Each structure stands twice: as C-alpha cells, then as structure tokens.
C-alpha cells in the first residue's frame, strides 16, 4: 500500500484495486466494503463477518423462497394434469363358477379351460392355482436395522421437537443424551430449510467425531411410519452460513479420518475473546484441534516441534502480543482468525490460509 503521508488517524480511502482501507495511525487496515461500516474485512470476501453472515442468510432465504415457489408450481401442475386426465376403470371378470356335471373329468377340464380362455384371466398365472399374501406394500430398502445402539443428541430443537426425539428413543430402544462425545451416533439438528442447518457448537463437534448430522424430519418420518428409516436421505448437506450444499458432514462421516491428519500443522489457540461470537471457550477449541488431527501447540511442546512443521496461530484481530510470543520460533508461522480452522472443519476441506490471515502480517 502507498505511504500514508500526512493522513490523520481514521482516514478512509479506496485503493486502486477497489478496496476500502483506513489509516489507524500505524498502518492501513482493510475495511468492510459496505459504506459507513468501519469493521475489518476478515473473510477475504470484501466485507466484515457481520455483513458476510447477513449475505449468506439472505442467500439461504432466497434459495428457500425459490424452492417453495418451484414446489408450489409443481403441485399446481400435478393438480391440473390430474383433473385433465380421465379416470379409467378396468373391470376384471370373476372366476368361473365350479361346474357341476355328470360328465367325465376330462369334459370338466375342457369346459373349465374354455371358460378361462373367454375370461380376462391368464391361465398361466400362478396366482390362479396358488395365491400368496401380497408384500408390495413393504419396502425393505426404506427400513433400517442399526448394528449398534443409537445415541441421539439434539441441536437447536424446540421443546416439542425434543419431546418427540425422546419418544423416538423410547420406541426404537435408542439413548437420549444432552452431551455430544465419542459415543454419540446421531446429532438431530433443526433445519432452516430442507437438509440445511445452522452452525452450532454441537454441529462442529459432531463433524469432528465423524457422526451423523441428521435433520429433525427423520424423527417425524420414523414416528409416523412406525419404523426406523435409513437416515442417509435425511443427512444435513450444508449450513446457513457457508454453503447449503457443501457436504462437509457427509465427507467427515465417510472419510472418518481427522481433517488435518495429513498436514504438518501445529495449531496454537490464542483467542482471548473466543470466536464465532463467543460460541467456543478456549478449552473447547483446543479439544476440537486435537480431534482434527493437528498438533495442539502449547508452551510445553514448542521446543519439540520439527522445523518442517507449520505453525498456525488462531488469535484475535490486532493481537500483537501474540506475535511477540512466537517470534523466537524458526518455523513458518501464520497468524489467522479462528474461522480458518472452523471453516476447514465444517466444510471438511482445509481452506487456503491466505484468506484468513491477519493484515498486520503483510505490513
């Protein structure tokens, strides 16, 4: 960036690259591109976190509105087709009555065969000689028998929905729990739209534990049909903040390996005010780091690090004291906002570090 010259602290300007920046007295800070907003751009999206989330919510609302309109038009189309098509009634002739005759058995067989030929019934049909109970209403592919005891945890459900989950557990011999841990099998999440949920603390932990994240609709369908349905058709595909169809939950469950296992990353948690609007405590974030397969960097293991290990420091915006703390290490170090780690986890794809770096590293 250009030299500040005689600009006063708080001076705002647009760069040649179309970015909005402010001079804070020491360096240029990249701002949110929304006019009259003086928060930092922390998502490499041109806006601050608040406006970034607002944009994502608006996208989700518009998509939901479009989905409902398409569903409504489809229903209208089906109704019109149903009205326009005449109802066809097919009559099936009854089976011939038993023939009473003094003739020989052969004559009786001839008469019987003649009657069958004149009717609509196929003589070769095995159902004529032996009728078996119909099983067409049973669909074994939809029913599901679990190989282990189900342990269910709820996320953002109403009291009534939670009661239904407890009823589900009672009917299908499952266990209800308030805490998510390694024994949990399913997280039942509230849906903002079909197979899309809000990101909660429990969602992050369910992904880290490689567990099912299922929409609440699965509970209702199982109770209504009185059988345990296959949950794959109800698995959450995305969230309202990042993307409605990123399939991160599904990837985590199927891959079933820690997301950072193949990366030489040591992650230090230096967030003093938490992250995601205080969703996590420092201890919880450290637990997620350990579950992710990365090395949790602490004071007692800094000197044991291999020089080829990259250090990722999750820290608050403009926390220069953290930079001084790690200056003595010879490893390659990146100072990023916590969303680098959390986005990588829930998307189950390691995100580019550059998009989450704190700006003072560039100066």
TrEMBL record:
InterPro entries cross-referenced by the UniProt entry: BRCA1-associated (IPR031099), BRCT_dom (IPR001357), BRCT_dom_sf (IPR036420)
Biological process (GO), any one: positive regulation of transcription by RNA polymerase II
GO CC terms of this entry: BRCA1-A complex; BRCA1-BARD1 complex
Region ranges (Disordered): 57-145
Composition-biased stretches (Polar residues): 101-121, 134-145
Molecular functions (GO terms): ubiquitin-protein transferase activity
Biased composition (Basic and acidic residues): 67-84
The protein, known as: BRCT domain-containing protein
Natural source organism: Rotaria sordida
Organism taxonomic ancestry: Eukaryota, Metazoa, Spiralia, Gnathifera, Rotifera
């Amino acid at each position: 960036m250009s030299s500040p010259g005689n600009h006063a602290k708080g001076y705002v300007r647009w760069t040649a690259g179309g970015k909005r920046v402010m001079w804070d007295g020491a360096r240029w800070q990249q701002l949110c591109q929304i006019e009259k907003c003086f928060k930092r751009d922390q998502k490499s999206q041109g806006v601050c976190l608040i406006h970034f989330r607002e944009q994502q919510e608006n996208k989700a609302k518009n998509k939901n509105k479009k989905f409902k309109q398409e569903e409504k038009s489809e229903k209208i189309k089906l109704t019109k087709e149903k009205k326009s098509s005449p109802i066809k009634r097919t009559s099936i002739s009854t089976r011939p009555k038993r023939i009473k005759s003094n003739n020989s058995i052969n004559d009786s067989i001839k008469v019987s065969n003649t009657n069958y030929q004149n009717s609509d019934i196929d003589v070769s049909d095995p159902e004529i000689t032996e009728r078996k109970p119909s099983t067409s209403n049973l669909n074994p592919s939809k029913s599901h028998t679990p190989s282990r005891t189900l342990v269910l945890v709820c996320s953002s459900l109403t009291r009534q929905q939670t009661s239904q989950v407890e009823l589900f557990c009672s009917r299908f011999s499952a266990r209800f729990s308030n805490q998510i841990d390694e024994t949990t099998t399913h997280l039942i999440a509230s849906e903002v739209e079909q197979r899309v949920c809000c990101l909660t603390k429990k969602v992050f932990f369910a992904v880290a534990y490689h567990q099912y994240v299922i929409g609440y609709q699965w509970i209702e369908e199982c109770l209504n049909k009185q059988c345990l349905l296959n949950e794959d058709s109800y698995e959450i595909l995305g969230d309202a903040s990042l993307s409605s169809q990123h399939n991160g939950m599904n990837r985590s469950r199927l891959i079933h390996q820690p997301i950072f296992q193949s990366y030489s990353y040591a992650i230090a948690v230096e967030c003093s005010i938490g992250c995601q609007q205080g969703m996590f405590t420092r201890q919880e974030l450290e637990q997620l780091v350990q579950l992710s397969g990365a090395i949790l960097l602490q004071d007692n293991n800094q000197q044991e690090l291999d020089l080829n290990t990259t250090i990722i420091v999750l820290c608050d915006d403009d926390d220069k004291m953290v930079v001084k703390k790690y200056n003595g290490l010879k490893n390659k170090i990146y100072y990023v906002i916590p969303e680098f780690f959390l986005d990588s986890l829930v998307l189950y794809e390691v995100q580019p570090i550059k998009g989450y770096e704190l700006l003072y590293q560039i100066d």
